[in-house]
Structures are given as C-alpha cells and as structure tokens.
Amino acid sequence: MKAVSTLQIKTPETEHDVHSLIAKRWSPRSFSEQAIAPDQLNALFEAARWSASANNEQPWEYAYAHKGTPGFDQLWDCLMPGNQPWTQKAAVLVVTIQRNTFAKTSKTNPWATHDLGMANAQLMLQAAHLDIYGHMMAGFDSNKTKEVLNLSDDQRPVCMIALGYLGEAEALEEPYLSRELSARNRLSINQFTREL
What we know:
Elements: H1 3-10, H2 20-24, H3 38-49, E1 60-66, H4 70-77, H5 84-87, E2 92-99, H6 112-129, E3 133-137, H7 142-149, E4 155-164, H8 176-180
Antiparallel strand pairs: 1-2, 2-4, 3-4
C-alpha cells in the first residue's frame, strides 16, 4: 500500500466543513528518509512563535535534533520502548517544554500548559501546510529528558514530537502497521458540547 492510499484512509469524515489543514493533520508512524531543511523547520517554529498566550508570556521552548546527530540519539533514548521502533526514521525529534512561572513575576503560570498546547497546534498546522507530518508523544521518560536537556525546576518537558515526510505504511511492523492503516475517528460534537 502506497503513502497516498494511507492519506486517503486518514482523510476524516467530518460532520461540518473544516479547513483543509485541520483535516490533513494526523499522526503517522511511517516516515520517509527525506530530511527537513532548516528553513522549513524554522517555519514551524515561527508558527509556534505567533501563538496566543496569557499576558504574552510565550511560556514555550523547543529543543530539537536532526536524524543522524548525537542529539537525535540522546532524545531517542528518552522515548519509551513502544515509541522507539517507529521513530527511528523521523527526520527530527522535538521536545516541547513548558516554563512553569511567569517571567515577569516568578509566580506560577496556571495557563502555561494550555499556551504551549496552542503553540504546538500552530506548529503542527504549519507542518501540514508544508507536507511535513508530526506525531506527538507522551511516551517518554520525563526525568531522563530533563537531565539530557539540563532543564531547571521551572521547565517541564510536556511532549515529544517526531517530525518527517510521510513514508509508506508497509515499512512498519505490527502493531504499528495496523494503526497506520486504520481510519481516524473522534467523538461526535454532541458528545463534548452543550448549549446553555
């Protein structure tokens, strides 16, 4: 099965029209060998840069490494075993980092995780625009990642992202192949909204 067929499988059946970038974004596990050029990667971080945040604090940071570098190997070693097999071909690994306190007051920022999530969403949509795909992961060793990146107590790694251009599903072994070829699904709108 070719990557284009995977794209057809992953095209969602939405209940209402959404922007094509939103429909296009999904989390593959199969990546091609193609590298991501620095200007393309910087475009993703530029999209994150312009995300909204409480008091314009921008409480996000990103640490990343390209495939074939010692940094990539260090970040890959922080992944849980279930994420390691399929991330080996990713072009870039990214750690998304939350700053827990307001820079201006040193008080706890209760909206930091929300704001980092918004920045990540913009990054992922920019990636979709450039035909770059990303898979966000909670399956990594947070303490080991903090050590590798020498993070302070004010910094928390929230997720890791494998980025790359789409590969072919059959390059994956099970159980990843079946997941790559399964249709996307979501709760219906009426299951998570209510009108007052």
